[in-house]
C-alpha cells in the first residue's frame, strides 16, 4: 500500500457520479493515505454530497487518512446548504511552484 492522489473534476453530480464512485472505491484497497485534489471542485448536487459524506465516513471507519487539497469556499458552501459537514474537509489552497 502507498499514498494515492486523485484529482476531482469541477462538479460531482448525478450525471457523473458513477465514475467518481468507482475511482474513490478503488482507493480503499490501494492506499493508506489518500490525497484528494479538490481544487477544481466547486459544485455538488445532493448525490455528490452524499458520495463525499459516505466516502469520508468509510475512510474514518477504515482508519484511512485523507488529505483534502485545495478545497474552495464554493464547495463548503454547497455542502453546508445541503446540511453536510465533512470534518476533514477544510478550505485550503494549493501552493504552486513559482
UniProtKB/TrEMBL annotation:
This is STAS domain-containing protein. Residues 6-98 form the STAS domain. It comes from Shewanella woodyi (strain ATCC 51908 / MS32).
